[in-house]
Design goal:
two-stranded antiparallel sheet; Spore Coat Polysaccharide Biosynthesis Protein SpsA, Chain A; 10 helices; alpha/beta; globular
């Protein structure tokens, strides 16, 4: 049903400097796989086999990763090391990768609008690689696809955060329809704790309907001159319907160094096998 997922991967990754001076943040390895590959695998599992990358300058390594390296394939063919390529081979067999460049960093809303030509007029997923989600069952996007089949509107993934951390996230409030599912009536981008409508924070998983592109075009830039997706979703909620879903699984904030280290340790201890 939903066949495409948009990956905004144009950011500078300044919190990981100097490592990200010449290497995309999304290519930093969590044990033995780059961060962005975990997200692509989650999207493909959800049936979103067309992965649309919104990239920027200095991100060529992402395109190279999701391509065949003939020299490497030749060098290790028939050796015991060939098995190390199994996971990326599976991704390349199942996925189709398209790319467009975001020439200026003008916020998440602008990044999504930049990807419009890759998406067209159909519902699509959005996955922010900074948020690594680990699940024993279906991934977060797969859970959200099932919800979309029921509600047929935009959906954001949420989780409860400490009240003193609301300034790091977009925050929602809304009517609880059933356990873990809310109809959104308010969204605020990075509110101070005293101004936050709740402690339900949006994390980097979305399913969006294509009318969001027109709404983003109407949205005025907010803080720092950036076009915030949260503002566009607030408009969409006011005009129609946006749902929020408290997902099942564990999330790691790999946009921060402590979160990245925590994710690496967790994946190594629970999921890595040296085959």
């Amino acid at each position: 049903m939903i066949k495409k997922c948009l990956f905004p991967v144009a950011g500078y990754g300044t919190r990981f400097l100097p490592a990200t001076k010449s290497m995309p943040k999304e290519m930093l390895p969590v044990v033995n796989k780059p961060l962005v590959q975990y997200g692509v695998e989650e999207a493909i599992e959800a049936g979103m086999t067309t992965c649309a990358m919104v990239t920027g300058r200095g991100k060529r390594a992402i395109a190279d990763h999701f391509d065949i390296s003939y020299e490497l394939e030749h060098q290790i063919s028939g050796s015991g090391k060939e098995a190390y390529l199994d996971s990326i081979r599976n991704v390349l067999e199942q996925g189709v990768f398209t790319m467009v460049r975001q020439r200026e960093m003008k916020g998440l809303g602008h990044a999504i609008l930049t990807g419009k030509s890759l998406i067209g007029n159909e519902p699509f997923g959005v996955l922010l690689s900074d948020d690594l989600c680990i699940n024993e069952g279906p991934g977060v996007l797969a859970q959200m696809v099932e919800l979309y089949k029921q509600f047929r509107c935009s959906i954001v993934a949420i989780q409860e955060v400490p009240e003193d951390e609301t300034h790091k996230y977009g925050v929602i409030s809304g009517e609880s329809l059933k356990d873990g599912i809310y109809r959104v009536d308010e969204m605020v981008e990075k509110p101070a704790p005293e101004d936050a409508p709740s402690n339900l924070a949006i994390i980097g998983r979305y399913i969006l309907t294509p009318d969001i592109f027109d709404i983003i075009q109407e949205t005025e830039p907010g803080a720092n001159g950036e076009i915030q997706l949260t503002d566009a979703l607030q408009t969409q909620a006011r005009r129609g319907c946006v749902m929020a879903y408290k997902f099942e699984g564990r999330r790691f904030d790999c946009g921060s160094v402590p979160g990245f280290v925590e994710a690496t340790n967790y994946v190594y201890e629970h999921h890595y096998s040296d085959k």
